[in-house]
Specification:
Helices cover about 95% and strands about 0% of the residues. By secondary structure, it is mainly α. The longest helix is centred in the C-terminal third of the chain and has 56 residues, at about 40-94. It is rod-shaped and about 75 Å long. About 5% of the residues are buried.
Length: about 90
C-alpha cells in the first residue's frame, strides 16, 4: 500500500507538471498565431499535441493507481471486517 501511495504522489506531481507544460505550449502557440509566424505555429501545434498526449498518459496512469489504491483499501477493510465478525462470533459462543 505504501508503494502505491508513493507512486500516486509521484504521478500527482508529474500530472501537475504535465498540465503546466500543456498550458505553456498553448500560450506559446497563441503567441505565435498572433505574431503571424506560420512556421513556428506548425512546430508549436505539433509540440502542443505531443504535450497533450503525454498529459493523457500521465492522467491515465494516475487514475489507474488511484483505482488500485481504492481496491487495496477495500480489500483491507473487508479483511478487517471479516476478522472482527469472527472475533465477535467467537466471544458470543464462549
Amino acid at each position: 500500500m505504501t508503494e502505491l501511495h508513493e507512486c500516486s504522489a509521484l504521478l500527482r506531481r508529474t500530472r501537475a507538471r504535465a498540465e503546466q507544460i500543456v498550458r505553456e505550449a498553448g500560450a506559446l502557440l497563441a503567441e505565435a498565431e498572433l505574431g503571424g509566424d506560420a512556421e513556428r505555429v506548425v512546430t508549436l501545434r505539433a509540440e502542443l499535441e505531443q504535450a497533450r498526449q503525454a498529459y493523457c498518459k500521465v492522467l491515465n496512469a494516475y487514475a489507474t493507481i488511484c483505482g488500485r489504491i481504492a481496491e487495496e483499501r477495500q480489500a483491507i477493510l473487508e479483511a478487517q471486517f471479516a476478522r472482527n465478525t469472527r472475533h465477535q462470533g467467537l466471544s458470543g459462543v464462549a
